[in-house]
Amino acid sequence: MEIIRHSEWAGTKLTLHLVSQILGKIKLGLAPQEPQWAHVTLPLTVSGFSTGPLWSGETLFDIDVDVAASAITVQVKTATTVIPLTDGTSIKSYYDAMVDALHASGITVTINPKSQEMRDIWWLDRDETPLAYDTSTALKGVRLFQYAAREQAVFLAPLRCRKVKPALFWGTFDVSSLIVYGKSEPFPEDKVIEKAAFDEHMIEFGFWLGDESVDVPTFFILPYPFQYTDLGSERLQPVDAYYDSKMSECFLSIEHVSRADDIQAFFRTSFDLLSDQLGWEGRAHYFLPLDMPAQPKQEPTDESL
């Protein structure tokens, strides 16, 4: 798997993050609500990400971001609008084009145009700052998201427990999935996002593309309730994985992934460490083999490493 550092595509990554906020906020306004905000995540596609199918009354539509084709496609029933992703276009232009395409088909959705969970505040409906876009680096970033989603799915799919499948969380722009234990644990502060995201015991498996302070993409695993205590890293695999008590997270930089099974080992050892700490019972049931015919084992090709 080819690694792209934050510093190598920061401008294009910002553009995709802002575009994902528009898709996410539209989905937030229309999708039936689910615990842990699972209804607002954006599924990954072969060449980008999408709202997935959404209903506005009796009208079905979706919005798809295709980074390979450098295009945003708004499809309402049989009507299709293509919005080019181009270098120098503002987020206001993308916002206006998407909203106008929906309005032309009779779809009205009200969103809060203020960016969410980003370091800097952007107004999606009015900021005219020219944004960067480069197709080749955008594709590299999406390929990393796809790689992380596949690894998360391999780990979570067979588990006999409640879970949220891998998808793009557009607020923080990471690909994450959850195992939810189902024990009530209300968030202690009156914060809208956190109150719904953290109201039950859970463990989040995530992948983040980095920022100005952490240049290299990184896998992370986060427990809730948060555990700001020294758990030690001796149980974690591979050897470069570690637990940070100040952040209440386990980390593995993608630069330290050298073997095909390193990520799966990181997921399992982190889950064992954190679920032990949280006192989860009945976990052995999660890992009972499925009573299904075995699938042929899919070995990674050279291109996917």
Account of the protein in words:
It is a single chain. The protein is an alpha+beta fold and 305 residues long. The chain has 2 domains: 6-134; 136-286. Helix content is 29%, strand content 23%. The protein has 6 helices and 11 strands. The chain has helices at 6-30, 91-104, 135-156, 192-197, 262-278, 283-286; strands at 48-50, 54-56, 59-66, 71-76, 79-84, 162-169, 174-184, 200-208, 218-224, 242-244, 249-253. The strands form 2 sheets. A 6-stranded antiparallel sheet has the order 6-7-8-9-11-10, covered by helices on one side. Strands 1, 2, 3, 4 and 5 form a 5-stranded antiparallel sheet that branches. A hairpin with a 2-residue loop joins strand 2 and strand 3 (59-66). Helix 1 (6-30) packs across helix 3. The mean pLDDT is 96.
Topology:
Elements: H1 6-30, E1 48-50, E2 54-56, E3 59-66, E4 71-76, E5 79-84, H2 91-104, H3 135-156, E6 162-169, E7 174-184, H4 192-197, E8 200-208, E9 218-224, E10 242-244, E11 249-253, H5 262-278, H6 283-286
Antiparallel strand pairs: 1-3, 2-3, 3-4, 4-5, 6-7, 7-8, 8-9, 9-11, 10-11
Helix pairs in contact: 1-3, 3-5
What are the defining features of this structure?
305 residues; alpha+beta; six-stranded antiparallel sheet; 29% helix; globular
- Please write the string of helix (H) and strand (E) elements: HEEEEEHHEEHEEEEHH
Amino-to-carboxy terminus distance: 4 Å
**Helical proportion?**
25-40%
What is the β-strand count? Answer: 11
Give the spatial strand order of the biggest sheet: 6-7-8-9-11-10
Which structural class best describes the helix and strand composition? alpha+beta
Q: How many domains make up the 3D coordinates?
A: 2
The backbone outline, from C-alpha atoms, is globular
Q: Largest sheet, described in full?
A: 6 strands, antiparallel
Radius of gyration: 20 Å
Strand residue percentage: 15-25%
Mean pLDDT: 96
- List unreliable stretches of 5+ residues: none
Number of helices: 6
